[in-house]
Task: structure prediction
Amino acid sequence: MKPVQSELKRWMEQNENFQENYNRVRQEVLGDPEIKEFLAAHPELTRNEVDKSLIKLHEYKTQSKQCDRCKSFGSCVNMLQGYSPILHVEDNEIHLSYEKCHSRRDYERQQSQQKLIKSLYMPKEIMQATIADIDSDPERSDAIRQLVHFVGQVQEKGLPKKGIYFYGPFGVGKTYFLGALANKLKEINISSTLIYMPEFVREIKASFKDDSINDKIDYFKKADVLMLDDIGAELHSAWFRDEILGSILQYRMMEGLPVFFTSNYSMDQLEGHLATTRGGVEEVKAGRIMERIKQVSKEVLISGDNRRDY
Ligand code: ADP
Ligand code: MG
Result:
């Protein structure tokens, strides 16, 4: 059996250490400028309550407040990432709670804005395009004016019924224009669905397998802003033209929802192109689609140098 005396001595030593530590932490906590300020604002708090809440006050002291010690959400140093502590008093008791910090709010806002662009098969550089980055040489100036006009209309009175049909040679920046517009619309909380036509055809065909075709068509019918990139470059399928494209455009025309296009063909040229499918030449059907395209968009030429040579 250990002598009681030495057990007691050990306990007292430990206890002394504890007491020392406790006093040190207490002094540090109560000496913290923000905690001092908090306590000064609440003279009603008793010493007993302050001592009882020392752990909460210590936790408050160690955390970054509204990002004062972190550069970004990703480098947040707090226990709960992206949450900032707040001290408050209720019924003469100290409470510690957490609220979302600025960085977390910014991050969440960016995330939800990013979701506003549903782009399918678009290169990264297009997704990062901005209107400000478009070189305003004379050959592009009309197209830029139209783009800026569209944005102005959205800001003034909401979405116009007509989008733009950008056409012009390969590489002049037509797709880039769509990316820049989608990014601008995102800032005004309007979502865009941007799809490359050849992939669109493939996507729809693939959805036969899993029965999702009607949901997909519905999605394109109802998107706030639909952007069809490179119309005329897809496979020549009468079925796709009439049943898919035709019904999406019909719906959007009736509902007054804008569609943007890019194409290497002018509207006249596209009409001839749409008429020619594997099934033969069907001018009436192509004409019907063209009517809808004209209802939902306005033809604008983009010319200039091939940017891909740069
Ligand atoms: P198009 O769709 O007319 O064939 P793209 O939009 O794909 O042409 O543009 C061709 C290339 O030039 C792309 O690599 C694109 O990122 C780039 N580009 C187009 N316009 C600009 C611009 N204003 N500033 C920087 N790069 C651009
Ligand atoms: Mg393109």
Q: What stands out?
A: Strands lie at 83-90, 93-100, 117-120, 163-167, 192-196, 225-229, 259-263, 276-277, 280-281, 297-301. The domain at 115-309 is CATH 3.40.50.300 (Rossmann fold). Residues 170 and 205 are 27 Å apart (CA to CA).
